[in-house]
Structure formats: C-alpha cells, structure tokens
Write a structure and sequence with these properties.
With 57 residues, the protein is mainly beta. It has strands at residues 15-17, 37-40, 46-48, 54-55. It has no helices and four strands. A four-stranded antiparallel beta sheet has the order 1-2-3-4, with no helix packed on it. It binds zinc ion. The site of zinc ion (ZN) has 8 residues, from loops.
Length: 57
C-alpha cells in the first residue's frame, strides 16, 4: 500500500495570525502591512510563513 501524495503545491492548511516575527530580517519587519501569518505543525510549533522563523509567543 502506497500513500500517494498530491501534486498540488504546498499551501499551508492552517495559518494563524500571531504577534510580530522575531526574526529581525523577516520581511514583515519592513512590510508592516503584511499580516503576521504562522503555520502550526503537528508538534504545535508555529513558524512564520515568510521566513519560517520559529515563533515563541
Ligand atoms: Zn518571519
């Protein structure tokens, strides 16, 4: 039995709006109008969708 993967591009299924990204080089530090979007993985770790910096709230 094989688990087939879809051919769709990776689109975050679950995004959450949290606080500012703690990566000083993140684009959200410059583009203040961008929503602070994070994806939460199965371990409960949130990562910035722009730079994948781990969010520690
Ligand atoms: Zn970021």
């Amino acid at each position: 039995m094989l688990e087939s993967e879809t051919d769709n591009p990776v689109i975050p299924e679950h995004t959450e709006v949290l606080g500012d990204c703690q990566n000083p080089h993140c684009i959200t530090q410059v583009e203040s109008s961008l929503p602070r979007l994070y994806t939460r993985n199965e371990k409960g770790v949130c990562r910035c969708v722009y730079c994948e910096h781990e969010y520690q709230g």
